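Tutorial handout. Part one gives the primary structure; part two gives the three-dimensional structure as tokens.
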Amino acid sequence: MSSRRALLADVGGTNVRVAVTGADGRPGPAVVERASDAGSFEAVLARAARRLGLTAPPDAVAVCAAGPAHDGVVRMTNLPWVVDATALRTATGAADVVVVNDFTALAWSLPHLGADDLDHLGGPGEGAGTRAVIGPGTGLGVATLARGPRGWMVVDGEGGHVTLPATTAREQAVVRELTRRFGHASAERALSGPGLVALAAALAVVAGETAATLDTPEAVVAAADGGDRLAGEAVALFTSWLGGVAGNLALTVGARGGVYLAGGIVPAWGARFDRERFRASFLAKGRLRAYLEGIPVWLVTAAQPALVGLAALVADRAGGGAGCA
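Part two.
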């Protein structure tokens, strides 16, 4: 980690978490701002910096945001903000500013997470090589961490928007309904907070029933806990589909070093998360089952892994590392 004083911000679709690195280069305690409380990210960042007692320009600013990143700009998918490195350089006075996708930051955190930050979901206890991170939250994020000529490098992308795979008649019926409603049934349309709500609604249509009004993912989970059949099926389908999509990711990038589940949803479910159902779908790849059995799978339980990743990225840039691809 770098000893430079860096201002770090993790910009989600709902909340913005901001911290300052300490002398050890790791993020200090974070403050949380509601994204809806200001018209621009720069205004939210300035308010958070004041709350953190930052009175002088930081040495560096590192920001991750939920949306595609290109040339230091993220146009957020689920929030009408543009996070721009050039604008942030002017707003903060920092000479070094980097803006990346939120799952790029999560991927950077993986080598810096300890045993207390992870919950083992299956496979061997450790693995070597490429690692992949995937996680449902406001959207569905995906990124890959791989070894480059000068150390770790992150390959980001928009894997959450791949087409949702269907392997059973029930799944095919749900995909048809999601396609009718949204035009394209991406993985994110099912595997996200809004996606869980959409799954419950789609299952009601498929069943020809009038579903209860469930307009938040928390409401769907609460209804499932209360015995609502369609809500329970939505949670089960979400879990099995997440396992299948995570298995696809592992095969695509050759994630021998492990697959890491992150995002805001699964860690919050705790004991509700059906590990066996997830694991069965993760492994259900026919002739490649044995390949997947050799890949460790972890649930990221750390409180602020994206900020840890941003601090690691700041250190990497200071040391002339390979950076992001």
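Part three, for discussion. Residues 115-301 form a domain with the Hexokinase; domain 1 fold (CATH 3.40.367.20). The chain has a mean pLDDT of 92.
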